[in-house]
Amino acid sequence: MFTNLEHLGFAVTNLEAATDLYTTLLGVAPYKMEHVASEAVDTVFFKVGGSKIELLAGTSPDSAITKFLAKKPEGIHHVAFEVDDIRAEMARLKTEGFVLLNEKPKRGADNKLVCFVHPKSAAGVLVELCQTIHP
């Protein structure tokens, strides 16, 4: 079950400059910076009330973010939703005809298991499913 909007992800070319910009814009410093080797990205997270903003910068030419920015300008890359049980949601969405970009959940940023829904099956929006990993 989808429980809430987890975060909005923004693709940026210069993470340091974007971090400075969003720190000024939002009036709050980021709470977390993280390298996600499996995705070849560096991330910065901001909390704004009950919402989060994630800035993403590719760290290699093979990164999905680097490829995205080669075709499109900086801006919204994906919308992420928290789910109770990511595997159950993946199975449900596949049954409903959605195309998943991952066969199984993988470890993402901010202590989450993640899976992405292909934009072609979600009205042009890249959707990320997130489940918090509990210790």
The CATH homologous superfamily name equals: 2,3-Dihydroxybiphenyl 1,2-Dioxygenase, domain 1
Poorly predicted ranges (pLDDT <50, ≥5 residues)? Answer: none
Count the E strands: 8
N- to C-terminal separation?
21 Å
Question: What percentage of the residues does DSSP assign to strands (E)?
Answer: 35-45%
Keywords: Metal-binding
Organism: Hymenobacter sedentarius
Domain VOC: 4-132
GO molecular function, one term: methylmalonyl-CoA epimerase activity
Descriptive keywords:
135 residues, alpha+beta, 2,3-Dihydroxybiphenyl 1,2-Dioxygenase, domain 1, eight-stranded mixed sheet, 3 helices
Structure description:
It contains 3 helices and 8 strands, in the order E-H-E-E-E-H-E-H-E-E-E. With 135 residues, the chain is α+β, with helices and mostly antiparallel strands. The chain has a single domain, classed as 2,3-Dihydroxybiphenyl 1,2-Dioxygenase, domain 1 (Roll), CATH 3.10.180. An 8-stranded mixed β-sheet has the order 2-3-4-1-5-8-7-6. The chain is globular, with a radius of gyration of 15 Å. The two termini are 21 Å apart. The model has no long low-confidence stretch (mean pLDDT 96).
